[in-house]
């Protein structure tokens, strides 16, 4: 007996689980098979031929999506003085130093991403055990530890997405909403794959892109032909 409801099963019936599609076909199927009563996110799972247990095969970074994610991103900035003012003027939702750190220690986590100026990292490090497991710790490798807070806040609010390969070698990224046009979704997806191609570790095995699956929040997965992404290498 299926554990899914009738709507999911009906959507699943429209998708050939073995076929690998073009970008256009896959995104059209994702949009047409979305059945939830809300504007679902559109996500991609990219299975890379890497072993994340090896430091030289850890793939992480960020991508600026041309059309954003369709989601309001709440940005927290750890800064003081002029840099705090700069962060507020750039549109940061929350800005502070010791006061914000104390608030987080008390259990407050009402934000989606965090930025810190380098001089604040000594204090921010005290809440690393809280932020780290949730993927909220500022990191110089992703550009979120910087004195250029105005620029990074602007990018994050506009649709800059951070990612990190998981233990299974898979990158998960939300790159839009079902309400987006297929053209906008394709632009965002291509930006994701081009970014991953640029970050290919020298020690990664071939083929680098093993599987690419797109889906809406509630809908079935649709496979994309990975050779389309291999052409970007």
Strand content: 15-25%
**Side-by-side strand order of the widest sheet:** 7-1-8-9
Euclidean distance between termini CA atoms: 43 Å
> Helix/strand-derived class?
alpha/beta
The stretches of 5 or more residues where confidence is low (pLDDT under 50) are none
Instruction: Describe the sheet with the most strands.
Output: 4 strands, antiparallel
Shape: globular
How large is the count of helical segments? 9
Quaternary organisation of the protein chains: single chain
Query: What's the average pLDDT?
Result: 92
How many DSSP-defined strands?
Answer: 9
Helical coverage, percent range: 25-40%
- Write down the Rg: 19 Å
What is the succession of H and E elements? HHEEEHEHEHHHEEHEEH
Fold topology:
Layout: H1 6-12, H2 23-33, E1 41-48, E2 60-64, E3 75-78, H3 82-90, E4 94-96, H4 98-105, E5 113-116, H5 121-124, H6 128-131, H7 149-158, E6 160-164, E7 170-177, H8 182-198, E8 209-216, E9 222-224, H9 227-230
Parallel strand pairs: 3-4, 3-5
Antiparallel strand pairs: 1-7, 1-8, 2-6, 8-9
What does this structure look like?
It contains 9 helices and 9 strands. The protein is an alpha/beta fold and 233 residues long. The strands form 3 sheets. A 4-stranded antiparallel beta sheet has the order 7-1-8-9. Strands 4-3-5 form a 3-stranded parallel beta sheet, with helices on both faces. Helix 2 packs across helix 8 and helix 3 packs parallel to helix 7. The longest helix has 17 residues.
